[in-house]
């Protein structure tokens, strides 16, 4: 059943402050919308939960990407195309730039936003494992003020977030401290583009050669589509960190991964397939480290 446009209200505030005033007055009635790549799917299917849409697309305060000495502040309204074309994002945060290139087709990349990807809260979202690996922080804003919040603690369950009804994500902050890391990312789906991930991974590692082989000084591993929320493999990371990397360690890491994730079987894949593929991706990443 398709939606009837006559049943919907639409408001386009001229500033972020005005948008926050609207939410503060009646947050349960308004649904913020920016690029609309996910909202319009629900609209077409007649399943949108709210009938008043608050258009954030034209708010310049949400579209900027600001570069500081210690971090990059990405506006929540920055599109995947913005991320792909920004030289600092492409150079220092390749996991995020690659994820942006995987998300839908060119039309979706021109409209879809990073903030929208976060609040849509899909465990299969391509960009979210990269944010976990980079230990991003969110700037959440309401009429009451701003607060910074670790992205790793933002998703608390399937489609559940640490976000109050009157808050918006203003920006995503990426610390600039990963220049010496090796990065690895893969998306496994039924085709190369315009497909929802069966499993996706974003991983970083800093390594050093020693007399005993290759030592993993630091490692960050994040997966999508293997739990109700995108997740960091903290136990697997602890097993690898500070250790020499060899065949035995890789096998142990695969076992640790299998015990951490909780994939489901659905129309797109099975739990056993996702577990096997996630282990294969982890092993490919670790073998890449060994080969330099």
What features would you highlight for this structure?
292 residues, alpha+beta, Uridine Diphospho-n-acetylenolpyruvylglucosamine Reductase, domain 2, Uridine Diphospho-n-acetylenolpyruvylglucosamine Reductase, domain 3, Enolase-like, domain 1, 3 domains, four-stranded antiparallel beta sheet, 14 strands
Number of strands: 14
> Any guess at the CATH architecture of the largest domain?
2-Layer Sandwich
Distance between the termini: 54 Å
CATH fold call of the largest domain: Uridine Diphospho-n-acetylenolpyruvylglucosamine Reductase, domain 3
What does this structure look like?
- The protein is α+β, with helices and mostly antiparallel strands and 292 residues long.
- It has three domains: 51 residues, Uridine Diphospho-n-acetylenolpyruvylglucosamine Reductase, domain 2, CATH 3.30.43; 115 residues, Uridine Diphospho-n-acetylenolpyruvylglucosamine Reductase, domain 3; 110 residues, CO dehydrogenase flavoprotein, C-terminal domain (Enolase-like, domain 1), CATH 3.30.390.50.
- The protein is built from eleven helices and 14 strands.
- The strands form four sheets. Strands 4-5-10-6-7 form a five-stranded antiparallel sheet.
- Helix 2 links the parallel strand 2 and strand 3.
- Helix 9 runs antiparallel to helix 10.
- The longest helix is centred in the last third of the chain and has 21 residues.
- The protein is globular.
- The N and C termini lie far apart (54 Å).
């Amino acid at each position: 059943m398709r939606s009837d446009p006559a049943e919907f209200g639409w408001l386009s505030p001229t500033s972020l402050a005005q948008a926050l005033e609207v939410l503060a007055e009646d947050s349960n009635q308004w649904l913020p919308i920016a690029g609309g790549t996910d909202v319009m799917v629900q609209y077409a299917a007649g399943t949108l939960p709210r009938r008043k849409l608050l258009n954030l697309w034209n708010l310049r305060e949400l579209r900027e990407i600001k570069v500081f000495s210690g971090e990059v502040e990405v506006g929540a309204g920055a599109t995947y195309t913005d991320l792909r074309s920004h030289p600092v994002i492409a150079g220092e945060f390749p996991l995020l730039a690659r994820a942006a290139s995987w998300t839908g087709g060119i039309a979706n990349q021109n409209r879809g936003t990073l903030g929208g990807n976060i609040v849509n809260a899909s465990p299969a979202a391509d960009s979210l494992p990269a944010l976990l690996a980079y230990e991003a922080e969110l700037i959440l804003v309401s009429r009451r003020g701003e607060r910074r919040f670790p992205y790793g603690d933002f998703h608390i369950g399937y489609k559940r977030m640490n976000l109050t009804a009157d808050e918006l994500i203003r920006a995503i902050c990426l610390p600039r401290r990963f220049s010496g890391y090796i990065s690895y990312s893969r998306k496994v789906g039924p085709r190369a583009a315009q497909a929802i991930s069966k499993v996706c991974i974003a991983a970083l590692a800093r390594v050093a050669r020693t007399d005993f082989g290759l030592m993993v000084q630091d490692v960050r591993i994040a997966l999508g589509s293997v739990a109700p929320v995108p997740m960091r493999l903290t136990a697997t990371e602890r097993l690898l960190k500070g250790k020499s990397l060899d065949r035995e360690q890789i096998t142990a890491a695969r076992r640790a991964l299998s015990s951490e994730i909780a994939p489901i079987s659905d129309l797109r894949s099975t739990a056993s397939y996702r577990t096997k593929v996630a282990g294969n991706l982890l092993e490919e990443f670790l073998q890449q480290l060994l080969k330099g």
